[in-house]
Amino acid sequence: PYYVDMNQNLFLQASLHSSDQNLTVFVDTCVASPNSSDFRTLVYELSKSGCASDKTYALFPSPRADVARFGFNAFSFVNRFPSVFLRCEVLVCRYQDYSSRCYQGCVSRFKRNADS
């Protein structure tokens, strides 16, 4: 476990360990849950499809393509739960393949009207 105070800035890094130097990483979606084995029942969305869902969530510059850095302010689930667990989806793409999902950034999908 990693202990932090409420509203403390929390910085994270996802690193790809591969012999292929031609890869890059992108943090697509991150959610938090008070239960380490259930990320569906009670969750808090930090980011989705590369877009910040939480106003404190931010991406930070990275020293290399195989490292993604991000952060947010620490929070709790209404004092009923002593811990918060994170689950992040990280995408791996070819470096400088600008048509790949890694280079699209925030992708917000709008619902269309189903009327005829």
What does this structure look like?
- The protein is mainly beta and 116 residues long.
- It has a single domain (8-102), classed as Sandwich (Immunoglobulin-like), CATH 2.60.40.
- It has strands at residues 9-15, 23-33, 44-48, 51-52, 58-60, 67-73, 85-94.
- The strands form 2 sheets. Strands 4-3-2-7 form a 4-stranded antiparallel beta sheet, with no helix packed on it. Strands 1-6-5 form a 3-stranded antiparallel beta sheet, with no helix packed on it.
- β5 (58-60) and β6 form a beta hairpin.
- The protein starts with 8 loop residues before the first strand and ends in a 22-residue tail after the last strand.
Low-confidence stretches: none
Shape assignment: elongated
Give the total of beta strands: 7
Q: What is the typical, i.e. mean, pLDDT?
A: 91
Number of domains: 1
CATH class call: Mainly Beta
Strand content: 35-45%
Features:
0% helix, 116 residues, mainly beta, Immunoglobulin-like, 39% strand, 4-stranded antiparallel beta sheet
Topology:
Elements: E1 9-15, E2 23-33, E3 44-48, E4 51-52, E5 58-60, E6 67-73, E7 85-94
Give a summary of the structure in a few sentences.
This protein is an all-beta fold and 116 residues long. The chain has strands spanning 9-15, 23-33, 44-48, 51-52, 58-60, 67-73, 85-94.
